Structures are given as C-alpha cells and as structure tokens.
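INFO batch 0412 | record 1 of 1 | parsing
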Amino acid sequence: MHLTALVPPPFADDMIENKEIVSKISGFDMMTWGELRTYERNDLKEENNRDVTKLKNAIVNDGFTTPFFIWSNHRYVLDGTGRCLALEELESEGFVVPELPVIHIDADNKEAAKRIVLMISSQHGVITQESLDRFIEDIDAIGIDDFINLPGLDYGMPELPDDDDDDLLDDFESAEEDEDAIITCPHCGKDFEYNPR
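INFO prediction complete | emitting tokens
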C-alpha cells in the first residue's frame, strides 16, 4: 500500500493569508429518490459491515432529518451512503420515499471531494459517558438505543442494583406504605413516581 501525505489544497494559502473563509456550499434543493439512488456513493465505510437497523428506526420514527451532501455536478454522494442503504431497505419493505433534501458542495476534483468526505466523517469532539448522561437527562431515554449508535457508551436504562444494594429496595418498601411516592434512582439520580396500586 502506498501512503501519500495529504497536502493542503492550493487555495488554502490564500485563504489563510487573507483570513477569508470560503463557502463551498453551492446550493440546496430537493431531489427524487429515483434520481439520488443512481448516484455513486463514497465507500469510506465498509458497506457489507453496516447495520442500518437503527438508522431505519430513526427515519421511520422521526422522519428524514439529515440532508445528503453531494458533489455538485458529479453525481457523487459525499455524505449519506448509510441513509441510501436504509432507504433502499425501507422501500423494499413497502415504505414510500419522499423527495429528499440535498446540499450541493463544490470540489475542484475527486481528491478534493474525498477530503470533504473525510472532514464530514470526522468526529471533532468527544462524547463521554458524563456528557451523554447530562445531554439526555431531560429526555425519555427508554428505547433510545433503537435508533442511535454510540459505541462504548451506555444510553439505556441504568442497571438494576446488586443484591447488596438495598437502598432502592428499602425506598420501594417504604413507598408501598404511602399512596404515592417519589423514588430517586441511586444510579442515575432520576426521580420516578411510584404508585403501588
């Protein structure tokens, strides 16, 4: 395998010297699935190792929320290969695919287009368990693992306490004496309403 160092595109020096940021977005419009499905797709991620089940669940439950990024005038999907695979499966299952949002991106050549794919696919921040817990603390996280994929992070329900952790069980036993009670989970800190009726 031959590795070549990536060099900045020729226009980068001018942008840095002039402190000018250039928008590479050349347009936005809606495209039929019949047309978009014929576009070449980037192959950065292994297609045969992709499970689009969670992506399909998200599209069915929340609608189509993320536009495709396409290389202007080149019939090439910069970002959206997984969404294409999910839509193909959904269509084969009988779902009707609407017109889809596309953002046109300018690139001088295929190398520049691939650089854009790498940039789009890069993660420029780290999601930690703590930051995820803080972010989802005010939403109903039940079933969230059906449509997101964050490897190495726990975004489901907290684990049940060990046998030697009697605090939660004591709370439930004392709550049974009351009509209604609020129980605080010792693992996630959330309050739950308990009604023994």
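INFO post-check: The chain has two domains: 12-121, 158-197.
INFO record closed
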